[in-house]
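Example 3.
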Amino acid sequence: MSEGELAQRAAAGDTNAFATLVRAHQSRLRGFLRRMTRGDHALADDLAQETFLEAHRKIAAWRGEGSFASWLYAIAYSRYLMAARRRKLEPLEDGDISSPSPESASALRLDLEKAMARLSHSERAALTLCFALELTHEEAAVALAIPLGTLKSHVSRGREKLKTMLQMWETAS
Amino acid sequence: MNDPLDALLAQRLEDVADNGFSARITTQLASRQRRDATVTWIVVALAALPLLWLLPVPSISETAARLAPALAGAAPLALACGLLLLTLSFENLLRER
């Protein structure tokens, strides 16, 4: 059954159809929110839960334009921004810039996560949606509710910052 | 994707095990739906309460008392009730299977 059909059934009150959608998307959505919250699993899971409950409430409004995933990420990102404002979550400062040299794939990944934490909310979200979650630029722009040009500049500025940070850590070690 | 940074960025996010997360959402939805239904019934009941004062209760009960024996002895009504019972039993049987 397609996601469109599942969403239609969920809108008609079929809880099992919605549960299928939750099971299909929970891992990627929670992964996205964990990265956005810089590894705060409890906060990420709370936000994911709020996202799914809001999605259920509004599911009749999703008309199948764009993917269901990008619609979910849009809700998740706006929930995240609200939480970030409430909790005053800002990108990390450059004070703790020292990092071990990435010698293995997992160390490299760890460095990427550390560097990601220093990007702005929108740069982190744009890079995660476009690369790790494989959304098109158009879908990511819709999910973040920004114009396509702005999304592209977030992606390119984020990439440049990451490159600089990772190179700096490599030469420092 | 030749750039090593792009390759690093394109790595899938680590899988997050469900560990009851989906079940918690479903449970919350069910309890929210129950709560919404309860609120709806309460609102409807409260809205209907003033209507009771307007209803001609004595005249209704008098009519019901007059018609009840006739209705109880009506063959078409008995047939309809029987059919309804049969349909419900059949549906129940199908659901159990």
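Chain A has a mean pLDDT of 88. Chain A touches chain B at residues 15, 18-19, 22-23, 26-28, 30-32, 34-35, 45, 48-49, 52-53, 56, 108-109, 112, 127-128, 131-134, 159, 162-163, 166 (CB under 8 Å).
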